[in-house]
Structure formats: C-alpha cells, structure tokens
Amino acid sequence: MKKMTSAEVRATFLNYFKEHGHSIEPSQSLVPVNDPTLLWINSGVATMKKYFDGSVVPENPRMTSSQKSIRTNDIENVGKTARHHTMFEMMGNFSIGDYFRKEAIAFAFEMLTNEKYFDFPKEKLYVTYYPDDKDTYNRWIEVGLEENHLVPIEDNFWEIGAGPSGPDTEIFFDRGEKYDPENIGLRLLAEDIENDRYIEIYNIVLSQFNADPSVPRSEYKELPQKNIDTGMGLERMVCIIQGGRTNFDTDLFLPIIHEIEKLSGKTYNPDGENMSFKVIADHIRSLSFAIGDGALPGNEGRGYVLRRLLRRAVMHGKKLGIQGKFLAQLVPVVGKIMQDYYPEVLEKADYIEKIIDREEETFNRTIDAGSKLLDELLADLKNQAQTIVPGADIFRLYDTYGFPVELTEELAEDEGFAIDHVGFEAEMKAQQERARAAVVKGGSMGAQNETLQAIEVASTFLYTEKKSKAKLLVAIKDDESQDKVTGEAQLVFDVTPFYAEMGGQVADHGVIKNQAGEIVAKVTDVQHAPHGQNLHHVEIVKEMQVGETYLLEIDEDRRSAVVKNHTATHLLHAALHNIVGTHALQAGSLNEVDFLRFDFTHFAQVTKEELAAIEREVNEKIWENISVETRTDLTVEQAKEMGAAALFGEKYGKDVRVVIIGDYSVELCGGTHTATTSEIGLFKIVKEEGIGSGVRRIIALTGKKAYEAFKNDEAILSDVAAAVKAPQFSQVVTKITNLQDELKNLQKENEIFAEKLAASQSDEVFKNVQTVDTTSFIASQVNVSDVNGLRNLADIWKQKELSDVLVLVAKIDEKVNLLVASKVAAVKAGALVKELAPFIDGRGGGKPDLAMAGGSNAAGISELLANVAEKLS
C-alpha cells in the first residue's frame, strides 16, 4: 500500500477516472443552489441530481468529483469518535446511462488494488452487498475477490422516496486485530456493530429502479437510464493510507492541531481522548469553507449551524486554557492544507477571519449575559429551596442563549447545586429528532421522464431575433410524442426566438402563427429539455402538425422589460462590490417583467447611505450610455482571466457567453440584454431586507416602473407637505421636526401633570393599609389617564414606608391595567400579578419587585381586590 499525502490521494482518485473517460467536475458551493430540500450540500451526488433524474443530460455521461460536504445532525459525536466530521470531502465517480455494474465494480477493484494507484492488498478488502443482488455478488467473484470476503446485508439498498433507487455494495478495509481486541471478526460487519477494524472506504450505488412507495420493492420498474453513484470519503482513505489511529491523525488535521497546541500550551496525544483538539480542528474547517461559500453565522437554518459550531469550538478552546479570541488565527492553516484543490479559502482568508472574529467576540459577550441569567435562575431556585437545576432550564440556556452546558454545570456546582442530566439529555434528544426530521438525506430526486430524455433533435435559440419562421420537430402531449396536437402541449422547433428560463431570467411569452398569419397557439412558458433544447409550453387553439413551418413571435414589450431588469442586475452586482464589498456574493436572482430581485451574502443590513450610493452609481452608469457587448468566442478560462464573474449556481460549458459593460462589469451570462445601458432608463431600489442568515435581498425597478415609483413617492411627499403646511418640499423636514419638538414639550407637561395628579391621590389611596399574617399591603382602584399614572403612584409608595406590598388597578379607556409592587423577598410581584390577572381576563409578568398586567374585564376589578389577601396568605 502506497504512502500518500491527502492531496495525492485526491489526485490519484480523480486522475484514475479521468484516464477512464470521466470529466472532472469542480467541487460546488456548500450552499445548495435551487434545491430547497437541502440545508447543505451533503454528498457528491447532491450536486448531480438533475442528471440522475434525467431533467438535464450532461455533456459527458462519465463524471468524477471530489465534493466538499457538510452534515451536522450528529454534531455531538464530533471529537468523540474516530471518524465523525461536520465537513468532509466525498470523492465519487458517476455514470449517467453509460456503464453500470460490470464496469463500476471493475473500476473500484482495479483502482484500489493496482500498484499504479492505491495498491491495497486484496486480502484486506471486504465487501457487503444486497442479498437479492446476485449479479453484484457474481461480479465481485469475477474480478478476483474471495467468496469469504463477501457479506450480504439487507440494508444495502439505496432509496429516498419516489425516483431513482437501487442496491448498493460497500467496500471495507480491514485494519487488523489490533482494532478488534475481542477478535469478533466479520460479525462486526454482518451485524453492523460499531467498530474501528473494518472501515468503509467506498460505496457503489447501482441506480437501476424507479422507486414507487405504493408497491413492494420487488415490483419496482427498471429505469430507462441506469446510473452509477459512488462515494469515497477522503478523510477515511487518508487515515488508512497514512496509518492514523483516527481521521484526525493525518495531514488533513494535524497542522491545525499543532497550531492549537501552540495557542493552548497543551500537548495532543494521539492515544488519548483529545476531544477538544478534534472538535476545534473539525469545526474550524467547516466554518472556513462555509463562510467562504457565502454562509454566515445567525439564528436560523445554516446560520444557526455555523453559530453552534463556532460556540462549541470556542468552549473547547476555553477547556484547553486558551484565553481570548483565537479561532480566526486557524483559518490560514486550513487554507494552506487545502490550497492544492481549494485555493479560495486562502484567497478569502481576510473576510473569513473577519466574520469569525466578530462572531467570537459576540459570543464572549453572550457568555457574560448567560452568566447573569444563570445567576438569576440559581437565586430563584434557592428561594424555592431547590437543590437541582432542572434539565429544561439547562437546555433553555444552551439552546436559546448559546450558554454551554459544561459552564452551567461548573457554575451551578460552585453554588452547591446538582444538575438534572437526564432531563437535559431528554430535551437534547427531542431537539435532535426535530432536526433529523427536517433533513432530507441527499435530497429527493424526481422520476426520470423517458419521453423528454428521448428528444435529441437539434434546436437553436436566436438571441437577437424577436420573431422567426421555425419548423416544428417534436410535439408532446400527455407525456407522449404526437404527430398532431391540440390543447396543452410541449413543442420543440428547429430554431426559436423564445428565451427559456435560466440564470434568473424568466421565459419569453408570445404567440405562434400559421402560414396564413392566424394565431394557432399561445406560448405560456419555455423551459430547457434534458438535452438543452428550448421546450415551449403552449395552449394550442388550432391543431398543429409536426413537420410544418410556423411563425414564432415573442411578446416584445415583455422581453424589453425583462432585459432592462437583467442588465440592471449586472450593474447592481458591480455596484454592490464597489460599495458593500467583494464578499457580497450573488445568492440568487430573478429578472421579472415588473421588477428585479437580487440576493447576496452580507453580514449586516445594508445602510440607508450605502443603498443611496448603490442606486446613484447604477444610475450614473445608465446615464453614461455604455455599450453592452456580448462575446461568444471565449472559453471559461479566458473569460475568468478577463475577470468575469460566474453567476451563482450556473454551470458553464467549454464555450461561454460573456457580457461586458464597458470597464465596469464583466460576467458570464446566458441571458438577453439591452444594447446600451441608457435603454434601462432609470433604476430605483424599493426594498432591502434579510431573507435568511447572512443573506440579504434587494428589490429594484427599472424604466417605466421606476419612474412610476418615484412619482408615487412624490405624491406621498406632497400629501405630507400639505398636512404639515409646508409650502415647499424642502421645508417638510423642518416642519416635522418642529412638530416633534412641540409633541415632546406637551408630553413633558403631561408627565408633570400626571405626577401632580398622583401626588394628590396618594394620600387617599395609601391610607387603607391591611395585613395578612405578617405581610402588610395596600390594594386599591385608582383613576389615572395612562399606565404612567400607576408607575408614578408606585414611585411615591416606594419612597415611603407604607406597606410591604402594593396592588393598584385602573380602568383606562376600554382596558384594565394592574400593577403589583413588593419590598419583601417573601412576595414576588411577578408571581402575584400572574395570580391576580385572571380576575380581569388578563395576563402579565415582571420582576420580583415590580410587575404589570393588562386585561379586558373591568367587572372583575372588585373581585380582584377582594382576593389580594387570600393570594398573600
């Protein structure tokens, strides 16, 4: 077995399959594109689903990749086990309707055992297979695997709901009896016992059936196009090849661990527990890659995952004795380890470090805030003579406030409390089950459409034409090809001026006419067929026939509005980079008829001043009347050398379209555009908002819609000017400021009046002091204009030694307000107000010394006051 670096392992895998006709696909962003079923890209096949379900036909049916992936439903196990990671790299080879079982198994066996490649001893390899899959069993025997190295496993069948599915066969490496002290042997595999001896290194999924949940597995139909999907974890392969005790004892993690040793002054021991070293090393990789791909820490979704990873890493740093912020210092180490295949981590290191540093600083403040909440909780438990901190409270501090369990336990024990570990674990388990239920493993795939996949005729989109004659080549109705069609159908022509929806630009609409000029169909949508042809979704009003020539006409007004918005999107993208920063990566766009929508990654709300600057810059480029040039003579590499920005989520072929707007914007883009920027007319931002953790959205208008928006704002301003009696718009702000000052003065006068009114009432209100047991109290209905009147009376009461407890209730307009104040520890105002509020059909709460409630039942005031004594007894 050869010794290799991690980079050499990856290269050996990819190059092997390149030698066997596979195209090497680049690793995609960890943030999924156009796939709501996934929180993260969690496997190599996750980026290939459109090929597996047949919605897109790849240029090369043989592909290979090494895909960065994140899985976080078992975060707690990272650091505890030898092979759990949040981020990992999944190497794989894929066949879309090309080779199948015979070749896939031969490729795997040769790559693993041939001395040119990994040179694994055959006797060290064991294979599991689906018991009913005799073909796979026989194939392994044919390539030279010993019969006693084959283990049938009932679970070796891959399926996720309806769609492609099939048996799988897994390859394991035997690390020897050293990792099997009880000498259990192959039962570890056969009975699926967790172990460190037999390590799964390669899984081959034989995707040959269309799964149908309504029938037994034995009745699944064969796929019209059979596929191969494999996965080989880089971290596991490197561990075996480099002889590491765990995945962490390899060149993928050890440089990070050595840097943590320097920061902590502690020593990593490969034979020890070392959980904190492993947690930090794993989590900083995930953070570095995810933030580099545009995800940001936050309170939900992907953001919550990153925040949790960062906080877990910080707390393990504290366990190692690291003082202050430290995680950002590890980012360059991650970048250097991975730069052979992922140079972008080092390229974006400054930005990644900035985000991590800011988040770590925020968490340090959170720890301070959590300490105060814990202090209050412990004080409350002491007052109740409790000695155990409930698991639900521990979990609330952990889940809601990010306060670490270990710190809760340490501080609580210092105060003499025990910890309800069972209750906490129950809460944690419930949360994990909710998280797992929300995750679609691998993402669902649609069933293959054999009719659409069979369309292989040539069809050309005419970028610059608004109408054209075209021959009808294919007509599909009710999922079957037809020679003649009426009603709703899907059509393919030899040429078409109709744009198919792509890259955020919506499809063209329009009409189809016959030779006599009669409208025979309305085009309501255009999408791409699996082989890339423009597939027209139509409503046919007069029968159409394959082979006939028709006149295709797009709705020019619709196209004109859309191209204005699309070209403005390019200008907006460039302006964002200039004003907000180059980290503002595109995270989706929509160029509609009436508006444009642009999503981008950014760690804060775009300020009012920044939005104004962006809007101004885009309009300046419009006024400059810059030519919009489209080049089609460049390769992807040449375009990127020019500085072309690849739009989010798009896959580009060898030859690309590059849209160049002077020296201001260069982007790879397959859409349609204006000839010059001045055709856009006008640009106006109407909204900026957050749509997810670390993702912002700008909605803007162009042309006529922008003008109408400006006129609408002008009309509103005119109404405001009239309302404040400002003869000119320029005087509106001054007028409003003066009115605000007048209002503040009146409010101050009102507060003074309220205080005087409270003082005048206080003697009458406070004279009736009652006592229950040893607690004195005042309970009274008062007349005040607002809740401040109640607070003023409470302030007067506090200044005087009149009673232990105060209960005031007032009917203010249609509502009833209740105030409870307490000067003694035995009576908590917050608890008492909750007991009294139901009498007025209300609810409320507050602190131990002051609490308030609001209700709607004025008829209950008398009963409330009558029950104060009972509630205090």
CATH class of the largest domain: Alpha Beta
- Runs in which pLDDT lies below 50 for 5 or more consecutive residues are 438-443
> How many β-strand stretches?
34
Distance between the termini: 81 Å
Rg estimate, integer Å: 34 Å
Question: CATH architecture of the largest domain, please?
Answer: 2-Layer Sandwich
Envelope shape? globular
Query: Would you identify the CATH H-level superfamily of the largest domain?
Result: Bira Bifunctional Protein, Domain 2
Number of domains: 5
Query: What helical percentage do the residues reach?
Result: 25-40%
User: What do we call the CATH topology of the largest domain?
Assistant: BirA Bifunctional Protein, domain 2
- Regarding quaternary structure, what we see is single chain
Largest beta-sheet characterization: 9 strands, mixed
Number of helices: 25
Percent of sequence in beta strands: 25-35%
Structural class, judged by helices and strands?
A: alpha+beta
Mean pLDDT: 89
Enzyme class: ligase
Catalytic activity: tRNA(Ala) + L-alanine + ATP = L-alanyl-tRNA(Ala) + AMP + diphosphate
EC number: 6.1.1.7
Pfam family, one: DHHA1
